[in-house]
Write a structure and sequence with these properties.
alpha/beta, Aldehyde Dehydrogenase, Chain A, domain 1, Aldehyde Dehydrogenase, Chain A, domain 2, six-stranded mixed beta sheet, binds NADPH dihydro-nicotinamide-adenine-dinucleotide phosphate, binds the ligand O=C(O)[C@H](O)CS(=O)(=O)O
């Protein structure tokens, strides 16, 4: 059992149109990836409950949008305050169902809450404009209005922040949201809904539906009342949902897979580059879409970088996320371990060397040793597939042109990183990299103030920043005519 200051936050129920529904004997078990133990159960809901939630959202949204932006902002601010007041409990629930170390989980709570805080402020800045008319009697006015009912589907790797990164702008804009969280991590979403009620989110505005992704998703994508679908997860599922939304022409927000390059030039600050690589590669045990999936090191510093990185990572302990000082928790499930093992096996079979780790951890279960590979080449699976685990493949390169071409040689375009202290090179490489985001001399770029998102197969739209609200609003053009000149006195 998870020790909580407020046990009511761990609620074994889904929230459908303002009504809490508890699981019956068809309920779905949620397990702790570190121990395999059952944390609790959630109801196995489907089409009817999803349809009911969407109808309730439509009703609640009409009232919500009539409230002032300041009023909506105050509710969001209260939600932010409650999240931070309960940071320890929300972090414990997250570690229990996702596995990341408690310190990192609490960090995610603060990161997730920052999106609610940011959009509480942005809510009051949905500015329109007045444009000089195209005729003497015409005036042109542009206003922004909420899209309406939003459906959201989120992944297990950031079970709090991937929800608030959508709910914050949606509610700030005046929308309602029906959410299907990942089946492996529903309790973080449910705890957010419990606190949302306490903050004053009206009944029906925010529903959390648990059950079959395929069935719930089919209703979300097919129901014409849903005006926007916002999805974070794999490119494969994202593309399928994109197609499912086509018949009802929904707006889409897609935050999909990545294959981030991490480039270290000869002129880099090597210690800073090692520190950045540890964060960019191993945050959340490598289970993030913006993780450094390929590490390119210029020939002049390759051996020194590899040695420094291995020495640093070797000091970082693996274990149960609730234990003091743990840096690497378990992977989410056995398929995740199998994929990591397959990538390591493929690389070594094609000539790569295991400098550190390279096998399942002695702890067993879904624990895997943090791994560093050297002598990695472009024909290996780690070069083209997202590993989504603690494997750092080091590629050697000679010239800037060669590494930029290699970095761009992927269908993905989410995050990228490079270390250089040459100003001209910083500009050249920043402009040449085909990605939505570029980290320059840093391995950690995600923050509510910045536009998060990708290009190519990594998705559509941006979350966070001053642009995030617009993804949940529609522009309306008012053409005011008949404004004739006053009669001469
Ligand atoms: N761009 C970004 O910000 C992020 C991208 N990702 C990417 O997601 C992948 C790993 O996350 P993972 O959760 O496994 O991704 P998935 O795409 O498998 O799952 C994401 C969500 O989609 C749901 N889902 C799965 N199948 C369907 C379906 N047929 N219809 C509707 N919903 C469905 C899942 O539900 P269920 O849990 O029930 O299967 C889950 O809630 C990686 O590729 C990673 O790069 C992950 C996080 C962030
Ligand atoms: O799920 C993810 O990978 C997140 O988008 C990563 S981040 O926002 O925490 O960088």
């Amino acid at each position: 059992m998870i020790k909580l200051n407020d046990p009511t936050l761990l609620r074994q129920a889904a929230l459908v149109g303002g009504q809490w529904i508890e699981p019956d004997d068809t309920g779905l078990a949620v397990t702790n990836p570190a121990t395999g133990g059952v944390i609790g159960h959630v109801p196995n809901l489907g089409t009817d409950e999803t349809r009911s939630a969407i109808a309730a959202a439509q009703t609640a949204q009409k009232a919500w949008t009539k409230r002032t932006a300041k009023d909506r902002a105050q509710v969001l601010r209260r939600w932010f305050d409650l999240m931070m007041d309960h940071q320890d409990d929300l972090g414990a629930i997250l570690t229990a169902e996702q596995g990341k170390p408690l310190t990192e989980a609490k960090g995610e709570i603060a990161y997730g809450a920052s999106f609610i805080e940011w959009f509480a402020e942005e809510a009051r800045r949905a500015y329109g404009d007045v444009t000089p008319g195209h005729a003497p009697d015409k005036r042109i006015i542009t206003i922004k209005q909420p899209i309406g009912v939003v459906a959201a589907i989120t992944p297990w790797n950031f079970p709090n922040a991937m929800i608030t990164r959508k709910a914050g702008p949606a509610f700030a804009a005046g929308c309602a949201m029906v959410l299907k969280p990942a089946s492996q991590t529903p309790f973080s979403a449910i705890a957010l809904a419990v606190l949302g009620e306490r903050a004053g989110l009206p009944a029906g505005l925010f529903s959390v539906i648990t059950g079959s992704a395929r069935v719930i998703g089919a209703e979300m994508t097919g129901n014409p009342t849903v005006q926007k679908l916002t999805f974070t997860g794999s490119t494969e599922i994202g593309a399928m949902l994109y197609a499912q939304c086509a018949p009802t022409i929904k707006k889409l927000g897609l935050e999909l897979g990545g294959n981030a390059p991490f480039i270290v030039f000869n002129d880099a600050d090597l210690d800073a580059a090692v520190e950045g690589a540890v964060i960019a590669k191993f945050r959340n045990n490598g289970q993030t879409c913006v993780c450094a999936n390929r590490i390119y090191v210029q020939a002049g510093v390759y051996d020194a970088f590899a040695e420094k990185l291995a020495s640093k990572v070797a000091t970082l302990p693996t274990g149960n996320g609730f234990d003091e000082g743990i840096v690497f928790g378990p992977l989410i499930d056995q398929p995740a371990v199998d994929k990591v093992a397959e990538h390591v096996s493929d690389a070594t079979s094609k000539g790569a060397t295991v400098t550190l780790g390279g096998k399942a951890h002695a702890l067993g279960g879904t624990f895997y040793e943090p791994t560093i590979l050297t002598g990695v080449t472009a024909d290996m699976a780690v070069a083209t597939e997202e590993t989504f685990g603690p494997v750092a493949p080091l590629f050697k390169f000679d010239t800037e042109a060669e590494v930029v071409a290699a970095a761009n040689d992927t269908e993905f375009g989410l995050a990228s990183y490079f270390y250089s202290r040459d100003l001209a090179r910083v500009w050249r490489v920043s402009e040449a990299l085909e990605y939505g985001m570029v980290g320059i001399n840093t391995g950690l770029i995600s923050t509510a103030e910045a536009p998060f998102g990708g290009v190519k197969m990594s998705g559509l739209g941006r979350e966070g920043s001053r642009y995030g609200l617009d993804d949940f609003m529609e522009l309306k053009y008012l053409c005011m005519g008949g404004i004739d000149a006053a009669e001469e006195a």
